[in-house]
Amino acid sequence: MTAETINIFRKAIESNDKEQLAELLEEIQPFDQSRLLLELEPEERKVIYSLLDPAALAQIFQELEPDEQLVLIEELDNRQVSQLLNEMSSDDAADLLGNLKKERAEKYLDLMGTTEASELRKLLTYPEETAGGIMTTEYVAMKKYFTAGETVKKLRLIAPDAETIYYIYVTDAKNRLVGVLSLRDLIVADPEEKIENIMYENVVSVPVTMDQEEVAYIIDKYDFLAVPVVDENNVLLGIVTVDDVLDVLKEEATEDIGQLSAIHNMDELEVSAIQSAKRRLPWLLLLLIVDLLSGNIISYFENTLQQVVILAAFIPLIADMAGNTGTQSLAVVVRGLALGKFTKQDVFRIIRREASTGLIIGTTCGLLIAGVAYLWQSNPYLGFVIGFSLWATLLVATLAGAVIPMILDLLNIDPAVASGPFITTINDILGLTIYFSTATLFMNRLL
Fold it and tell me: For the chain, which domains are there?
């Protein structure tokens, strides 16, 4: 939304030219309309609200982030909010209500239609970050004894309210999911043919309690536009659509990045400096204590360092390379686990791969730095100590970056908690221990 466009809207608002405003709004997409509202002042937004019917306002709200919705909803009266919720997709409406205080959410639900309110109350009972928590109840389902012709007629009636019409789910008399057919299959079928004869019986569905990340993986794996959600009796409860999955992937990626950096939820603007410090300090204090071990290692080998002062020049190199390669391995494994590319059965295969990777990287970097150290100090033993230490450090650090998140995953702990700062500090300690231990063994050759 450009400043020029916003100024055009502002001038129309100032002149109270509602006809021009209506025309301008029709020319831009709901997402751009949502950006426009956020740029305008509250009094200016009220003019826009007066021009929008509940359906149009619902489309705009569905383009807003949760914190943005909470800001704008304060500017609407109870009647407007209840109408807005009636028009929103059930999953989006449930998410909005879930972000409100319970008493306030109940007030809005009481003002809604009985059927819509009942559906939303049921959706709100499902835990967040599960299939039930992100599903919508606006789907197309037909009884298996319908003919293709009857299904097309019914589809014309319910399509405007459905989230997607590309999949028609087929159920029995008890609403149990028994099949699915595509819109294409329905159109080309003989109108007199029963849909149970043309449907696919092997339906890929997800349980209502499945974690949202697993649901996203299934939709990505099969390239679905939507996946049905069922209960323990295979009763169809709703669907999760691909646009919901995109939100899940964004949310999970943000969460993983935050955990990898030990700054989870730091992207929220409403988090104060004090709250931010409280969340970061525990990690930093832990790392501070662990870093003291690094200092103790150097102190323990003080005699070695005093006698071969040149060793100090390579301390940053050893520590940084250990942290860097460990973080790379950590990122690869955590991402693979998050996307479901690695399973618990792949543990030894991953370890072998990362060990081989560490050997190749360690050998290449070790030989390079050994040559540099030798040419610099004309001491082949110094070159060997530096080269061997870096080789061993990179091998160990690469394995640590792979093994630690896999151990956490096997213990059903989010592997992202093996954060970058944590694995970096651990590998610093390992690298310095290997470095000074090797130097001490070859002390006589280094003098």
Answer: 3-130 (1.25.60.10), 141-241 (3.10.580.10), 273-446 (1.10.357.20)
